Amino acid sequence: MRVELFDFTLPQERIATEPASPRDAARLLHVHATGLGDLGVRDLPSLLRPGDVMVFNDTKVIPARLYGMRGEVRVEILLHKELDATRWQVFAKPAKRLRVGDGVIFAPGFSASVEAKSDDGQVTLRFHAADHDGFYRLLFDYGDIPLPPYIAREGQSRAEDRENYQTVYAKHEGSVAAPTAGLHFTDALLEAIRARGVALEYVTLHVGGGTFLPVKAEDTTEHIMHSEWGRLTAETAERINAARAAGGRVIAVGTTSMRLLETVVDESGCLQSYLGDTAIFITPGYRFKIVDCLMTNFHLPKSTLFMLVSAFSGLQRMKAAYTHAIANEYRFYSYGDSSFLERCAEDIA
Questions:
Q1: Looking at the domain that runs over 65-143, which CATH code has it been given?
Q2: Cα 78 to Cα 38: distance, rounded to the nearest angstrom
Q3: From edge to edge, which strands make up the β-sheet containing 199-205?
Q4: Which of 55, 28, 39, 35 is nearest to 298 (CA)?
Q5: Residue 126 and residue 340: Cα distance in Å, rounded?
Q6: Residue 106 — φ and ψ, nearest 5°?
């Protein structure tokens, strides 16, 4: 499909640079088969049914942006994917100034060597740390929270972003971007959902730096997704399968949760345990096998995530929803408002 089909005009003032406070004070656009509903995130329990299961991504954002020097050249590094205890694939600026064997110094006692470069612009760095724990101690001392480029900051992120750009249930360190639909949840909202008779389950998908990259291809078939590491335990898979078999809906909180579930599910609609990478790219025409509803923030024009929600709820329906959201001053992107989508795909060929 032509990427231009997923374009729309978004006024700059609709891009949120600060989160809602408190988190669940954000707005929620309900997108369903017969129309749209303007709600708040605190109204979410009213959209749920006893027996439903909500699936959250419990990944934890790490301070994955680093600033260092290669000789006299200032280098900005965004960690992308962990390869082993001290090796990472990264995006670098300026990547062209880095050569295999070069050293990059981030702080006294914290440096790395360029081990490899790939044709797609990724760089492999080996950090000079004793082990995984040693590397993470240095990272948390000197790294910066990797806010998306559309969240304007003077210089580095602010101290409060370390808390704001993290879900309240974050557990497993490894993401370089937040699963942003989850940013709206508070402990009180989670308890209200449980009181509604809805099960809460957790998977892990470490979001990679590729989530920030634009789609440069003219056709979706030409775009290559970066892989991300995910985990679904056998116990969690069994509980989700049981809830669905009993008539409950599977509700993915965020596109990351959805992508992992749709990676793992088999043709019969059942989940198994999983530990590995996924590079699933969901566009209109994809047949969803397990996710019934999706809670997700508002996404960038021509992005893979807008393609995903268009596959889930239909391109024309999502364009109408985004037009409504813009006209009614919803806040977009990572720190913005959210939506609750019911599955209702359409043909757009």
A1: 2.40.10.240
A2: 37
A3: 35-40, 27-32, 338-342, 293-297, 250-253, 53-57, 199-205, 228-232, 274-278
A4: 28
A5: 41
A6: -100, -35
pLDDT tens by residue, 128-163: 998 999 999 999 999 999 888 888 776 677 888 989
Distance (Å, whole) CA 280 – CA 98: 30
Contact by Cβ (8 Å): 27, 336? no
Question: Per-domain residue ranges for the chain?
Answer: 3-61+165-342, 65-143
3-state SS track over the chain: CEHHHHCCCCCHHHECCCCCCCHHHCEEEEEECCEEEEEEHHHHHHHCCCCCEEEEECEEECCCEEEEEECCEEEEEEEEEECCCCEEEEEEECHHHCCCCCEEEEECCEEEEEEEECCCCEEEEEECCCCHHHHHHHHHHHCECCCCCCCCCCCCCCCCHHHHCCCCCCCEEEECCCCHHHHHCCHHHHHHHHHCCCEEEEEEECCCHHHHCCCCCCEHHHCCCCCEEEEECHHHHHHHHHHHHCCCCEEEECHHHHHHHHHHCCCCCCCCCEEEEECCCCCCCCCCCCCCEEEEECCCCCCHHHHHHHHHHCHHHHHHHHHHHHHCCCCECCCCCEEEEECCCCCCC
Give the model confidence (pLDDT) of 233-288 as tens digits: 999 999 999 999 999 999 999 999 999 999 999 999 999 999 999 999 999 999 99
Question: What residue type is assigned to position 63 of the chain?
Answer: P
Q: Is the pTM of this model over 0.70?
A: yes
CATH code of the region 3-61+165-342: 3.40.1780.10
What are the tokens at 219?
Answer: 């056709």
Predicted confidence (pLDDT) at residue 349 exceeds the cutoff of 60: no
